[in-house]
Amino acid sequence: MAKKTIHKVFGHIVLYLVIILGIFALQFRNQSIISRNFGQLRLTLSEIKNENGEKVFKDSFFISYKGVSLFSNTDTPLIVTDTKKKERTLVFTGWKELSESAFELHFSGDFILLCGLTGQNKDILTITTPQNIQYQSAAIPYQLSEAYSLMDLSQKRAILGGKTQETVLSAPLIEQDRLIITALENTITYADYTPSKEFLFENTSSYELAQKSYYDSAVQNIKNILVSQFSADSDSLNEQVLVSYITEMASRNKYTEAVSSVPASFINGTRRSYLSAPYLNNLVAMSKSLKMQQDNLIYKLNYSLDKQNLDIFKADSLDSFLLTQKTSTVKNLLAMPGKLSIFEPTAAEAAGIIAVYTGLSRKKVSYASDLKPYMDKCLEVIRKACSIENDSLYLIEKEEKLSPLLSIHIAHALITYAELSSQPDVLSTGFMLFNSQITNLGQFDLRSIAEIYAVIEKNNTYYPHIELFSVNQDNPMWAWTSAKAISTTTDSEGTITIQTSFPAGYTHYMIINNVEPFKSIEIYDMLFRTDPRFESYNSSGYVYDAETKTLFLKYRHKTYTERVRLFYKEQEPPKAEVEAPEQQQEDSSDNTPQPAADSEQSTNPVSSLPVIPETGNTAAQTIPNQYW
């Protein structure tokens, strides 16, 4: 009985083996394995026979190189998100050999992966897509060999350790089991890794110069040096020194002291431009240089669009300037990086793009979103330029170290972007780069200190800047100002109310552009009449240039927030009263106009532009400048 049972079991085993071997034989008869070597890169594919007996590729591929494998099959497919954000699974359809070190893989939907070994020694695995492929992102399955251990992992980089070498896998996004590429960042690389030569943002936080406390102390030292070394009689005095000094003194509640220290020879001299106009008047004359500066930026913008280069992004405060331009022009510029055949900005251009994105994120998010896809690439450009020497961080491009001032600009771009996007590693890198440039402040003269101050205090509203009113999207009103805050409203009758905040008792000046001709203007809740000598009065005042649609305003703040209203319908003017002349710009604390005899009313409160006298403090005795 037992022998029969053993014979029966043995017979079943033989039967099963015959069936299994038959299945394998049938499978191998209908399927063939293709294995091709491209140096150390191996590609493995399978061919099967379809119902018609024709050979077709099985829906799978397998790439292996130094312990990393990329693959796709029916269980773990390659997934693409199209431009309409719809996911679809791709089927492998074939391949094509391009050279002894490269090939391409074809998928359904005309999707293609270019694979090969690149670099001078053909030792970098590179996987990318052709530029004409339309997709938003693609997720490619991958796995690591058991012979390699994961030493470090971030969103974009994985450091692997083998028995004899270390390697680095880089991709736009690294997930647990997939590598993600996008239409804008479409490259995966895998190469040997030398720790001593590779700078990573993540490695800076342990350095002393990367600490915020060190940065805060350095910034305060720069401010203190600016104030302590400033002298109105110094040979180092120029407009940048003056503007940086007044800005810092205003932050210390010493605005009047700073403005009154400026010699009249400088105010009325030839060394001034629009930059100091918000502090020192002579608005009409200074507005010419503002117009020249705007025209120069417009020329550079159009040139960059025409030549498809990124040079315009190195312009200072470009984000504010773009807000004054037509939407179509701005959109074309912001889309340019994606239209370049190769997007390879310099470190300065990359920092400029980051700075524009950061500024627009605070002012116009719809514009900023156009630049967001390029942030990682720009950070990568700056990262590759970073080099640590003696525990200090420098930027090296084309084998030359970038200047301290340019490095400070780039550091500031990293700091403000990292604060916006909450990236502590980038933030510590920005701190370290900045602090490394100013470890010895004694090497900088006062003019250089003033330039550094202008970089780090860009968001200090006392510093002259563009303020957008956004009355008309494609031709907005905007002001060149040092006001702390400006807001506007427009009522049903078209009256525009401009509310400006600045410390009470202080005087500042504004050049407002793109102001449509109005019927009358109200300041201090009183109708004012234009006067060419308005800047010399001990009160607010204005002139208006209808040809250029520019409004020149003097604000003498009785309260922290003053209101100006522009009427586009006729108003009933009350009787006028003469304004007492101002003997000196900032020497009076009594801002109340003194009563005077009635004056003949003007039939047209808005006149053509008069010429302001060259001496900004000349007193006017007879012409009233406001209606009561």
Topology (elements, then pairings):
Layout (H helix, E strand, L loop, with lengths): L1 H29 E8 L2 E9 L5 E11 L2 E5 L6 E3 L5 E3 L2 E8 L2 E6 L3 E8 L5 E5 L8 E8 L4 E5 L3 E5 L4 E5 L2 E2 L3 E5 L4 E6 L19 H18 L9 H13 L3 H6 L3 H4 L9 H4 L2 H25 L10 H5 L4 H13 L7 H17 L1 H7 L3 H11 E4 L2 E6 L2 E2 L2 H18 L2 H14 L8 H11 L8 E4 L9 E4 L3 E6 L5 E6 L5 E7 L6 E4 L2 E3 L12 E5 L4 E7 L4 E7 L8 E2 L48 E2 L1
Antiparallel strand pairs: 1-2, 2-3, 3-4, 4-11, 5-6, 5-11, 7-8, 8-9, 9-10, 10-17, 11-16, 12-13, 13-14, 14-17, 15-16, 18-19, 19-20, 21-22, 22-25, 23-24, 24-30, 25-29, 26-27, 26-30, 28-29, 31-32
Record keyword descriptors for this entry.
single chain, 628 residues, alpha+beta, 9-stranded antiparallel β-sheet, 8-stranded antiparallel β-sheet, elongated, disordered C terminus
Description of the structure:
The chain has 628 residues and is an alpha+beta fold. It is built from 15 helices and 32 strands. Strands 1, 2, 3, 4, 5, 6, 11, 15 and 16 form a 9-stranded antiparallel sheet that branches. Strand 2 and strand 3 (55-65) form a beta hairpin. Helix 10 packs antiparallel against helix 11 (365-371), helix 10 crosses helix 13 and helix 13 runs parallel beside helix 15. Residues 24-28 and 576-628 have low confidence and may be disordered.
